[in-house]
Amino acid sequence: MKRTKKLLALLMSGVLAVAMLTGCGSSPSEPDAGTPDNSGTPETETATPNEGASGGYKIALIQQHQTNAFQIAVSDAAAAKAKELGVDLTILSSDQDAATQISQIEQCVSEEYDAILFEPVDPDALGAASAAAAEAGVIVINIISACTDWESYGISALSCGDNVTAGETEMQHIADLLGGKGNIAILTGPSGDSGGLQRMQGYENILANYPDMVQVVEPADCQWDTASAQSTVESWLSAYDLDAIICENDGMAVGAGNAAGANSGIFIAGVDGTPDGFEAINDGRITGTVSQDGGAMAANGIEAAVTLLSGGTLENNTIITTNVWIDASNVADYE
User: Fold this and answer.
1) Which of 31, 290, 304, 305 falls 20 to 30 Å from 157 in CA-CA distance?
2) What mean pLDDT, rounded, does the chain reach?
3) pTM of full prediction above 0.85
4) CA distance 167 to 198
5) Which CA distances in Å does 52 have to 81, 284, 302?
């Protein structure tokens, strides 16, 4: 009887050992073939983290749009910085629609992103969505154009250029080229855009010192668009004798240069320091541009987000890039 019990005990021990070995050697189950592919979500670009890099945070960049050289430089620099720091970056475009941008912020919160960077389509419309994201524990960084009262909505940092100074730098160079007198015209970005308004303030600050620089036509809102600017300037040139055209971005300056033609004798300037602006400087269609380095604004925003997510603090929650005037004399240094 005792031998029977011992034999039974040994047999049970063997069964248990086999079961344990089977459990340790099993492979993880395959993903469910029926898992949704999220094909209905906005189109994204992803920067894969460096292998072994620390962090692995999930960050979204929501751009106003992706239709010009400046915005392409922003997304490229953000992707490069994300790869360098080892974070997973998703890039979205709001296509100049504030409602879309709000929806994208809400979607990123629901998908548990660690941080959201965005350039507001409407500086007054993004406050509530930003506050809700911050309250949900998401780090929110405002880049390029500032939201109205951004700090009051839980936004952790602003990474941008000094648009007033950019406007002053651009207009002062035109004033110097004109010797302080002449007929001028101005092309603006979308009405209400905070960056454009600040650049206009810079223009006005300089024009106050030059009463003989006369705006012969009201500023035209060309929505940052090259084709719109070209059409507008073509109509202006048939009606006015212009000495200079000052534009709030390079895309519109290129449009103005296309309308006027190379070496037209009209001083044409822009802001942003983009490749198409440099090309237009080289072939004489525009005179110069003020570079604010939009790529650096995005990269600095990514760095700020990672610092905060890692438990660090920012020396300054307003991160400003520098302004540089670029013309034929130095454009080769920036291409």
Assistant:
1) 290
2) 86
3) no
4) 7
5) 16, 48, 19
